[in-house]
Amino acid sequence: MERHRTASLPLDDGPAWLARLRLATGGHGFDIEPGRVIVREGDAATSFHAVESGAVLVSATVPEGGVAALAILGAGETFGQDGFLTDPAGRFVRPAFRALVASRIVAIPIADVWLAVGRNPEIGRLVVASLTRSVERLQRRVAGVLLPRVIDRVAELFADLARVHGRPSADAVVIQVPLTQDLVASMVGATRESVNRAVRSLAASGAIRRSGRTYSVLDPPFAAAGLRAEGTS
User: Fold this and answer.
1) Are the beta carbons of 134 and 81 closer than 8 angstroms?
2) Cα torsion angle, 13, 17, 18, 19, sign
3) What is the mean pLDDT of the segment spanning 72-97?
4) 3-class SS letters over 100-117
5) Residue 38 CB: number of other CB atoms within 10 A?
6) How far apart are the first and last CA of the chain?
7) Cβ distance 3 to 119 under 8 Å?
8) How far apart are CA 133 and CA 131, in angstroms?
9) Could you give the CA distance from residue 37 to residue 128 in angstroms, rounded to a whole number?
């Protein structure tokens, strides 16, 4: 059967790995309108989700009572990993996931993922690879948020979003998700006023270009980062 020939397809083909996972598990895709909650904060995952297209905002309530934006997932990225835990005892942060723009999500029941892995170890490698990419991106984001200067945190955030959500144009990489300064401030742990100053400085230096809620990365190092597609293996 086709599901047993997955190893013949290259692992660095982003759309293909998700197609193979769907084929092996019977997972189905569904369209989500902007703003719709996919998983509520605190809910335990019963399905492994993958973003087929669009953007998914990850957020969580902080001890002070506000809501912090943690990440914006893009095509090929996954969530619902806590569903693989066999003993979720203790405190486990379960953030909320909602569509930031019109998105298509693949949902696969955790039990079906385990069955597919048992039938074909290659599927297990695909799942582990997706989890590894999530950890690598999280590590970069944490390192960026810990930078002492707000302008550097904002610059690192734009570089991250350009890698995941960027579309190359003639002279820049356009970040294809709408970004308000409140959202940027939440993601870098700073005030809206300090983010506004950082954005103005980056624009004045020629690193970025802003048009409403759309940002383009112009600085050559940023552009290079945006043009390098995320690996899928």
Assistant:
1) yes
2) positive
3) 81
4) CCCEEEEEEEHHHHHHHH
5) 20
6) 23
7) yes
8) 5
9) 26
Contact 18/55 with Cβ under 8 angstroms?
no
Distance CA 124, CA 122 (A): 5
Q: Does residue 55 register a pLDDT over 90?
A: yes
- What does pTM read for this prediction? 0.81
C-alpha to C-alpha distance for 26 and 112, rounded to whole angstroms: 8
Separation between Cα atoms, residue 203 and residue 222, nearest integer Å = 13
Q: How far is CA 174 from CA 22, 119, 163, 179, in A?
A: 30, 41, 10, 12
Query: Using an 8 Å Cβ cutoff, are 11 and 233 in contact?
Result: yes
d(CA 213, CA 9): 38
The whole-angstrom separation of Cα 113 and Cα 72 is: 24
pLDDT band with cut points at 50, 70 and 90 for residue 187: very high
Contacts of residue 140, defined as CB under 8 A and 6 or more positions apart, other chains included, come to 156, 160
CA dist 209 and 174 (Å) reads 9
The strand pairing partners of 50, in sequence order, are: 78, 106
Q: Which residues, listed in sequence order, are joined to residue 99 by a DSSP beta bridge?
A: 56
